[in-house]
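just leaving the lab so this will be short. what follows is a protein written twice so to speak, once as letters and once as structure tokens for the fold. can you read through it and tell me how you think this chain folds. thanks a lot i owe you, the record is right below.

___
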Amino acid sequence: MPAKRPPIPLTRERIIEAALHIADGQGLRRLTMRRLGDALQVEAMAIYHHLPRGKDALMDALAEHVTAVHAEPAGSWQETARAWCRASRAALREHPGVLALALTKPPKGRAAAAVREQIEQLAEAGVPDAPAAVRALRAYVLGAVAVEVQQSGWAEPPGGDGEAEPWLPPSRGGGSAEADADFERGLDALLAGLAGA
């Protein structure tokens, strides 16, 4: 008789991964602590050992997961900003189920640290009013992704009983060359405007 496998330990990372899977596949409204516990094969209360504030902490963690983006300084501040705008867009498109959290929750933890890093990178490169430049770039990325997700047909379930339309992130066959071109065109214009500010 084969030995019984020990259960996989419950970790914060496993919780977030399972929550992202539910939110992306079924919509944020369907993400409950009970459903998350079922997906992890644990009692819902076990999740609170890793996220003591419960669902509030979970929502913060999901927002942080898709907005804590890092990019190494490049040859120019425009190249650096372009790198983290592209990385931010990719992270948000990978998890459309939590886009609403990224849009509404203020940056905390690693996400706030990423914003500070972005401001420092631009300030060190001599960009005037680096905080305003970072706010403009973040707003552009969030807005562009929101429009892409809306146009893709992916949407939250209407009343909690339906299923969200499947969304294929770019890494799995979604996205389009037109969306990519639109994003780059808008980013070029914004960077040019910031350079001339």
